[in-house]
Write a structure and sequence with these properties.
The structure is a homotrimer of 134-residue chains. Chain A is an alpha+beta fold. Chain A has 3 helices and 8 strands.
């Protein structure tokens, strides 16, 4: 089964999609197999991170913003906005695709793991994630 | 087939699991397909790196420790220890899942490639990696 | 189906392989499924990036070269050349494997996404990418 998850983002940060992926898995009827995700954008990415404590996500965001700041004199690709080139770099440093083993009808995430869409731009965006379950 | 590889780590560094994954592949009987890995933790990660010369792994570890130091004033997520937030960031910058084509009963790694569990914390940890072969 | 894509690189940069992967997909006859890639090297990597504007690729390259410079005193793994250890680090920070959902006989890439081999060394190299389609 291949489906698209659409998610509306409103600025930088981690948006959890674990439950959305689980719903697709249930709908697929697959009990054992692989669930693969591809985010169809180059200024947002995917990550598996701690879903328990928001402070971890907050620090992750701040740290990456400091590593890849806006307004860096090295950028020549600037006509799509100050946040565009940093977003491409952040996407390259994190994940665009994920592969998740499934057993007993469950995605085998660890206890504290959640699946997140990581928005790297400031404005509202409609992000699409292609999901293959087989 | 979905199995869990458990590995005991004792401090930061790269722990090779190539042989463990190969053993699962042999047990599965799969000759052509895909072998997918997910590490079930957010303070350790997966990487495919050079397995021939330990100095490359040593430099990789030192470089990443310098990029993501402990005690950074930017961190607010500190109650799980000084090495916890850096570990989450390192996990985000490296890989949590891997997908490896299989042919002729072999994982198609390059000559110098090994699969590693990358431990980002100091203490001893039991790390689990879910492996799907199909 | 498992095949190898070979690509000759001539120095650092992004080499688009989207069309090569598409040709394999057509040859496979697979209409719905998963296309997985593994680059068989530890000094080059894979990335999905913007394929429309070369300035984004140029900035990505320059930014990463500044983050991971040659000649860093931290390196001890130096006998394979000044560009070797930075190449391993860059490979660890980017992707070695990718998983791409396929539907309607198409890889479900976004409008502006291309698949690239990211060469991190200066000299000419023959790079091999294992591709599983199933």
């Amino acid at each position: 089964m291949v489906e698209i998850i659409s998610i509306k983002t409103h600025g930088q940060g981690l948006y959890e999609i674990t439950e959305r992926v689980r719903q697709l898995l249930v709908a697929s009827g697959v009990k054992e197999g692989l669930c693969s995700l591809l985010i169809q954008h180059t200024s947002a990415s995917l990550t598996i991170q701690e879903n328990a404590d928001p402070s971890a996500q907050h620090d992750l965001e701040n740290w990456l913003n400091r590593l890849v700041p806006e307004g860096d004199a090295i950028y020549t690709h600037v006509f799509e906005g100050r946040d565009d080139m940093p977003a491409h770099i952040k996407a390259a440093l994190t994940a665009t695709t994920l592969s998740l083993p499934v057993k007993g009808g469950q995605i085998l995430l660890g206890t504290w793991q959640g699946i997140f869409c990581w928005e790297h731009r400031h404005g509202s965006q409609l992000r699409q994630i292609a999901v293959h379950i087989g």
